[in-house]
Specification:
- The chain has about 325 residues and is of the alpha/beta class.
- The protein has helices at about 55-60, 80-85, 105-115, 125-130, 145-155, 175-190, 205-210, 225-230, 280-285, 300-315; strands spanning about 10-15, 30-35, 40-45, 70-75, 75, 90, 165-170, 195-200, 210-215, 220-225, 235-245, 255-265, 265-270, 290-300.
- It has 2 domains: about 10-230, Rossmann fold (3-Layer(aba) Sandwich), CATH 3.40.50; about 235-300, Alpha-L RNA-binding motif (Alpha-Beta Plaits), CATH 3.30.70.1560.
- The chain is built from 10 helices and 14 strands.
- Helix 3 crosses helix 4.
- One of its GO terms (molecular function) is ATP hydrolysis activity.
């Protein structure tokens, strides 16, 4: 298989057990995870806090040693070809980490030097322009706003022009406008051919941005599907009915998964769309003598699927 056909990242049977603090066995953070990140995609890595996402990213970055399994980045095994694997990936960490006494330009120049990039081949000015920081090139990094520091971290991760960019919770704690700017930058990099892996707690962002999503829970991979297919896994649909007059007793029917009153004259009925449809639900309500004056429906979204899958994983 040529690299043009190979995954951008390939992970097989990845296990990480942290050393015990006392006499125990130590925390098993990753339990034999296997997945591929296709080239050219924006790939979402989701999961609750403590699920193992950051551990996986830190293993790829060379900051955490895996217990067993294999990881390849752009075809380079992180054990047998660490140098090339490192050059193939850029990591944007959750924490803002750079010397506050350097200017943004110096931050990028120093990073380029660490990668052995000759001065004539460095792209510091272009990268600062890409993240809209040209006017701050000579300012001390400590004087930048939180949003500017986030953008500088993206530029720093792209200094060596890696084909893979990993963003670990890049929009945690930032305002709506900065979040929009960061996602525009991510989309542009992806349009230019960079494969992007991101972890996020904002499920609506993952649903909008990602081509494919993997969900990790308690160190195990519980889903890995194209985003649309994952959303389609949600079988439940909700219909909200406004009735002609208030009711004292909720309607009941075997097709209802759940029925709740949200106001004296408004009820919300959840049903399994694989087993019935909205027309049958409306017919069942009308058959019980209730006149309907308005109907709205809500499709399941990624948040519904995420909650459903992680809940199932905890009970099995």
């Amino acid at each position: 298989m040529s690299q043009s056909d190979a995954p951008a990242i390939s992970i097989r049977n990845l296990v990480k057990r942290y050393a015990p603090a006392g006499n125990g066995e130590g925390k098993l953070a990753l339990k034999g995870v296997s997945l591929d990140v296709p080239q050219g995609q924006i790939f979402g890595l989701l999961g609750p806090n403590g699920a193992g996402k950051s551990t996986m990213i830190n293993i790829m970055a060379g900051m955490v040693r895996k217990t067993s399994g294999t990881v390849s980045i752009w075809g380079f095994d992180i054990d047998h070809d660490r140098r090339n694997a490192s050059r193939a990936i850029g990591i944007v960490p959750q924490e803002i980490v750079f010397d506050p006494f350097f200017t943004p330009y110096e931050v990028l120049e120093n990073t380029a030097g660490l990668y052995g990039i000759p001065k004539a081949e460095r792209l510091s000015e272009q990268l600062l322009a890409d993240v809209h920081l040209s006017d701050k090139a000579k300012a001390y990094a400590r004087t930048l706003s939180g949003g500017m520091k986030r953008r500088l971290l993206v530029a720093k991760a792209m200094v060596h022009q890696p084909p893979v960019l990993v963003l670990d919770e890049p929009t945690a704690g930032v305002d709506v406008e900065l979040r929009r700017q960061l996602w525009e930058l991510v989309k542009r990099l992806n349009d230019e051919g960079v494969t992007v892996v991101l972890t996020t707690h904002y499920l609506e962002e993952a649903e909008e941005l990602c081509d494919r999503i993997a969900i990790i829970n308690h160190g195990e991979l519980i889903a890995n599907k194209p985003t649309r297919e994952l959303v389609d896994m949600a079988r439940e649909k909700i219909v909200v009915l406004t009735l002609e007059k208030p009711i004292d007793t909720l309607p009941g029917h075997p097709a209802f998964v759940k029925c709740a009153a949200v106001a004296p004259d408004i009820i919300e009925i959840t049903y399994d769309k694989d087993k019935t449809n909205a027309g049958e639900i409306l017919g069942a309500v009308q058959a019980q003598g209730m006149a309907i004056v308005d109907v709205t429906t809500r499709e399941a979204d990624l948040e519904d699927v995420f909650v459903s899958l992680t809940t199932q994983a905890q009970t099995t």
